[in-house]
Design a protein that fits this description.
There is one protein chain. The protein is of the alpha+beta class and 532 residues long. It has helices at 45-68, 73-97, 135-139, 167-182, 219-222, 228-242, 248-260, 262-289, 329-332, 348-354, 363-373, 386-409, 413-436, 474-479, 502-512, 514-517; strands spanning 14-16, 99-102, 106-111, 117-122, 126-132, 142-149, 159-166, 206-210, 293-297, 300-305, 311-316, 320-328, 336-343, 356-362, 438-441, 445-450, 454-461, 465-471, 481-488, 494-501. The protein folds into three domains: 8-204, PH-domain like, CATH 2.30.29.30; 205-375, no CATH class; 386-435. A hairpin with a 5-residue loop joins strand 10 (300-305) and strand 11 (311-316).
Length: 532
């Protein structure tokens, strides 16, 4: 067991499918196995697993047959039968050799035939229990259980995966793992002594926000999944590069066609850019965030989303440390953005997927949800010095101007004119980047804002601050500015207030954490810049 002030801070939200919620009547009372009972995966996984594994290489194999010109019905049937038998045999061996057992203080998982692998996950190291179900799993009433353990590493190496168990068994495991984990001493000194199980069936649920379908049309402006078509282009390019039937003659013919009719090619590329990217962005956003709903209980937030695979994320309120609003430059024209919660115990890799409160929404709706769930919205931010404006104008204008002068000097005005236009566009961009800068502290919440192409407003609770870092380059020292990074145990781990007045950096940090910075601050505090 861990100390009362350290145990739960490492743990994060859980992900479960909506179809198999713990309060489902059919799953309310699954059979209870005695602690330490060795169990197998569901036998129904022998139906899903071979199909899933066969599908991973069936399409590439069929494409290889077609491209090579050796495709015949008999050959396809032969290889298909062989692949099916191998998939069934592999799945059967995997099912027969896989065991798991839930003890009072750990979860044991054993698998493998030739290379035996055993793993023991202490319950007080569990950060989250995820239940996911693909359409095939949902058809067979199965779920995949992923136990995310705080093992100090990254990726799936820190997970215990049970693929797959029945929906009732998955609900039972999730309930027991979270109940026993919550029974451990609370992580926070300010947390209640008796921890409750988030998402209990007897807790009232209130709908705090629901994403409207019309909001998906704003997703291309927020940058969400905007570059999804590039994945398709990459797949096509890889197929062409690996194809033996497309040789030098075909490539030369395609190049000649492009040169012969460049206007048609340009029109097609423009149509793909204007139509393909936004349509793909809207489709992906709707697929992953269909019927996105935020519900609140006294001690947790429940997020439900997904069209094909319904997902249910539970975030404990006692682990919420702040929120982050991301506004892309195009989205700011329609006042739209994305809202994320800053939660302790969730790694930076899964922060964007697990802690997303609103994937796309009007800014005022995002602010309203942030205030309801975490804390107040900052009314004003302290402006950064004029030196920050000069630095942004210099970086936005001077490089393009130098290139434009070089182009005109070398007799290439056709290149100089666009470069000069970019230099002129740098003026409003630099001003906007400066106006986006700001920081504030109201006695409870620390606020930091910055960025232009993607403006980020971060509001943190004071107790979330775990450290400070001051950065100052040689160019910043000449302008007497510095960057103050707020270290936190949530989200990305640190958020920067760029180009603050160098004399007020220590004063601001001392105002938030006076005991830490007392030796570095004089008795006469430096006055802050005027607010806007």
């Amino acid at each position: 067991m861990c100390a009362p002030d350290r145990c739960d801070a490492r743990f994060g939200g859980r992900l479960v499918t909506d179809q198999y919620r713990a309060d489902d009547v059919s799953l309310a009372a699954p059979a209870i196995a005695a602690p330490g009972t060795v169990q197998r995966l569901s036998a129904r996984s022998l139906v899903v697993d071979p199909i899933k594994r066969l599908g991973t290489f069936a399409l590439p194999l069929a494409a290889a047959f077609v491209i090579s010109g050796h495709f015949t019905v008999d050959r396809a049937a032969y290889y298909g039968l062989a692949g099916g038998l191998l998939s069934i045999a592999y799945s059967l061996i995997r099912w027969a050799t896989f065991r798991y057992a839930l003890h009072d203080n750990r979860l044991d998982i054993t698998s493998g035939l030739l290379a035996r692998k055993s793993r023991s996950i202490p319950l007080d190291r569990i950060r989250g229990v995820d239940l996911t179900a693909s359409p095939m799993h949902r058809l067979m009433r199965l779920v995949v259980v992923r136990v995310d353990a705080a093992a100090g590493g990254t990726g799936r190496a820190d997970e215990g995966v049970l693929d797959a168990v029945t929906a009732a068994e998955g609900a039972r495991l999730r309930r027991l793992l979270l109940a026993r984990r919550s029974a451990a001493p609370a992580a926070d000194a300010e947390a209640p002594e008796v921890a409750q199980v988030p998402g209990r069936d007897d807790q009232p649920r209130t709908v705090l926000a629901r994403v409207r379908r019309s909001w998906f049309l704003m997703s291309p402006l927020t940058g969400a999944y905007l570059f999804a078509p590039l994945a398709l282009l990459g797949t096509i390019w890889g197929w062409v590069a690996q194809s033996d039937t497309i040789g030098q003659r075909q490539v030369q013919g395609a190049a000649a066609w492009l040169v012969a009719d460049p206007w048609l090619v340009g029109f097609a590329a423009l149509a793909f850019l204007v139509l393909g990217f936004p349509i793909a962005s809207v489709a992906m956003t709707a697929l992953l965030n269909w019927d996105f709903t935020v519900r609140g209980t006294p001690d947790a937030l429940e997020l439900e989303r997904g069209l094909l695979t319904r997902r249910h994320v539970t975030l404990e309120r006692r682990r919420l440390r702040g929120w982050e609003l991301v506004e892309a430059l195009p989205a700011r024209m329609v006042r739209a953005g994305r809202l994320r919660a800053l939660v302790t115990g969730i790694g930076a890799e899964s922060h964007h997927s697990r802690a997303e409160l609103l994937p796309v929404a009007p800014v005022e709706r995002a602010y309203a949800l942030a205030v309801t769930t975490v804390g107040a919205r900052p009314e004003t931010l302290t402006a950064h010095p004029r030196a920050a404006l000069r630095r942004r104008l210099f970086r936005a204008i001077v490089p393009w101007t130098v290139l434009a002068i070089a182009a005109f000097a070398t007799g290439a005005p056709e290149a100089g004119v666009p470069l000069l236009a970019l230099a002129l566009l740098g003026i409003p961009l630099g001003v906007d980047r400066y106006r986006s800068l700001g920081h504030a502290y109201d006695g409870e919440l620390v606020s930091v804002r910055g960025g232009s192409w993607s403006r980020r407003t971060v509001v943190l609770q004071r107790r979330a601050v775990v450290g400070w870092q001051v950065r100052q380059t040689i160019f910043q020292r000449r302008q007497q500015v510095a960057t103050l990074v707020v270290g936190v145990g949530a989200g990305s781990g640190g958020y920067a207030a760029t180009d603050m007045d160098a004399d007020s950096v220590a004063t601001f940090a001392h105002e938030v954490t006076p005991r830490w910075l007392a030796p570095f601050v004089s008795e006469e505090a430096t006055p802050a810049e005027p607010t806007r």
